[in-house]
Amino acid sequence: MKNLLVTTALAATLLSSAASAEDVKIGVLLGFTGPIESLTPGMGASGELAMKEVSDSGKFLDGSTVTPVRGDSTCVDSAAASAAAERLITSDKVSAIFGADCSGVTGAVLQNVARPNGIVMISPSATSPALSDAEDDGLFFRTAPSDARQGQVLAEVLTEKGVKSAALTYTNNDYGKGLAESIKTNAEAAGIEITIDSSHEDGKGDYSAEVGALAQAGGDVLIVAGYLDQGGKGIIQAALDTGAFDTFVLPDGMVGDSLPASIGDGLNGSYGTIAGTDSEGAAMFNKMAEDAGIKIDAYVGESYDAAALIMLAMQAAGSSNSADFKSKIMDVANAPGEKIMPGELGKALELLSEGKDIDYVGATNVELIGAGESAGSFREILVDGGAITTAKYR
Amino acid sequence: MEIMNALALLSNYLVVPALAYGSQLALGALGVTLVYGILRFSNFAHGELMAFGTMAVILMTWFLQAQGISFGALPTELLALPVGILATVVLALGTDRVVYRFHRSKKSQPVIFLIASLAVMFFYSGLTRFIIGTADRNMGDDGARFIFTAREFKEWSGLDEGIALRTTQGITVVVTLVCVVALFWFLNRTRAGKSMRAYSDNEDLALLSGVNPERVVLIAWILAAALATVAGTMYGLDKTFKPFIYLQLLLPIFASAIVGGLGSPVGAVAGGFVIAFSEITVTFAYKRVLTYIMPGDNVPDGLVQLLSTEYKFAVSFVILVVVLLVRPTGIFKGQSV
């Protein structure tokens, strides 16, 4: 009797997997709790928007559907993120992972879970330069540019603003260190003096000591390479209150609507950079996201693109198996081929099934270089009238 | 003038922030030390109790603001404080009834109490997050933000360096002073306070003299809950309310209580200021202060920073270790740990 049951179960499994239309699961591994919990709902929703678009088109892998499965990367806790990824792969049987978000956990998940299981990962927001040369077996990609590039762009912005000296503080993790390093090197090469570079810990009670040291070192501006929900905000608040600095330079982790909302008018005049583009695709995507009720915030476009690339590569390979489609990601992302805008995923799927080439442009003008990371266009932002405004694109 | 500038600089970046932070730690450490003195265990749930109390204050503040009630130049949170204290007292007494009273009747070892308090901590943290969520909440957004700003001070004094004093910093120091004076008056002058000290010094002797232990415990919890709420609210007003940070605050609070001497209220206050000042003074960069003080145009090279700010937590722990090695009972002769 027991044997019969097992056989029946096996047969049922075989039958269902043999059917051509399947339900492809994609893991959505983002820090829904933790330092960037105010950004992740938008990022997750935007990735899932792409998945819904593909499912609804009915043209994906002979009418297959895509189901997102969420996992919590926590942004900071590598063990928790690896456990969540492990669950997505072994128990939810996802075919690929859209995520993770922060650089530290992304590196950990890549090494501990994705590589051993041979699962493709596309991160929308991990920006640490260290990930460029990480061993990845061709499984890891990102639609966000490396911070090595952001450092150059920030240094250009500082030079244009006529900044002569700056104090620099960064959050004490992979992202903060990598970014601070890159900012410092590029700024010094541009002749800007970095008076001090010191780290701060996130989630601590009091930042008077950090601000004291930064204020004594002095500088025209304070560069805060941290997180807007965490120590970065604490530092800015304390620096404003003591009158230590008036202008702050905000790299990507600090750009979000919640920062001006909670700091208030003191932040006006501060500026920064975040990955972004004014391409036609960005405008189209913003409209789509608005219609879907997604707030346009940091890394929302990158998220849509990351999810879209996963599914387009699957279609190009005709398989949802990571080993099959990992080599197709660069093909669908880059020229040659027909340009694909956001909202045209159905058309892209059709072209791919006819065996034609596509060049996915998407919301962020995707162009993957090197080991599979975005070349990167940046949006220079200015905090004006208590809101984040776009100064220009570079 | 140069000396005045150096003093203003030190006050702005060192003395004022350390005074406010030290006051918050002192209030927290007082609660920890009271529970330790009377119930004889380290209450790990104290940080989360602070978070719960602060949450109650925030909810009440929202209610008051919705009714259009405000407190003039002072933040509305101060009006809501009594309600927050009441809610926290109810929670603390309820916890004592369902958790700690059982262990007291069994005369359990302190370590069992300690582990129980750890469980209570997780319960409180879940409760707080369940009610108000994990997000950051700005407190004290009505009322005046500054007593005087750095710029106003510069114009008034004609110095090159300004001192900023936030309303919340002023309130924190004043409220701490009031709480500490009231507590000491209570412990030293009233019958209930004296019976508490007697119970803390020698439990058996106090029982023989007719001190009712349940009453002493009751008062201890009421005081601890009130202090936790005040400490949490002062902290939240000065910085921000985020449940996660209150858990992190537990560490410096315990360090303060132990450095001062566990069970000694004077020690808790002193410990709070020792920890706050040492964290900031050791990691402060003295370059500009020295530039003002040193004769002529001597400017020191480098930042003149003893330790980089990464090590500020190491500083409080080094002090803790040294105190435990040299004087295990703490600066003010509390119980040895």
Q: What descriptors fit this protein?
A:
A: 394 residues; alpha/beta; Rossmann fold; 7-stranded mixed sheet; 21% strand; B: globular; L-isoleucine transmembrane transporter activity (chain B); transmembrane (chain B)
Oligomer: heterodimer
- Taking pLDDT < 50 over at least 5 consecutive residues as the criterion, the unreliable ranges of chain A are 12-19
**Overall SS class of chain B:** mainly alpha
Report strand % of chain A. 15-25%
Q: Pairing-aware structural class of the strands and helices of chain A?
A: alpha/beta
CATH architecture name of the largest domain in chain A: 3-Layer(aba) Sandwich
Instruction: Report mean pLDDT of chain A, rounded to a whole number.
Output: 88
Task: Indicate the CATH class of the largest domain in chain A.
Answer: Alpha Beta
Detailed description of the structure:
The complex is a heterodimer of chains A (394) and B (337). Helices cover 43% and strands 21% of the residues of chain A. Chain A is α/β, with parallel strands linked by helices and 394 residues long. Chain A folds into two domains: 23-145 and 279-370, Rossmann fold (3-Layer(aba) Sandwich); 148-277 and 377-393, Rossmann fold (3-Layer(aba) Sandwich), CATH 3.40.50. In chain A, the strands form three sheets. Chain A has a seven-stranded mixed beta sheet, with helices on both faces. A seven-stranded mixed beta sheet of chain A has the order 7-6-8-9-10-15-16, sandwiched between helices. In chain A, strands 11-12 form a two-stranded parallel sheet. Chain A is globular and about 70 Å long. The model of chain A is unreliable at 12-19 (pLDDT under 50). Chain B is mainly α. Chain B has a domain at 19-248. Chain B is built from 13 helices and two strands; from the N terminus they run ααααβαβαααααααα. In chain B, strands 1-2 form a two-stranded antiparallel sheet. Chain B starts with a helix and ends in an 11-residue tail after the last helix. The A-B interface holds A 33, 37-38, 172, 196, 198-201, 203-206, 208-213, 215-218, 229, 233-234, 237-238, 241-244, 258, 262 and B 12-14, 17-18, 21, 134-136, 138, 149-151, 162, 164, 166, 235, 239-240, 242, 244-245, 248-249, 252, 276, 279-280, 283-289, 303, 305, 308-310, 312-313.
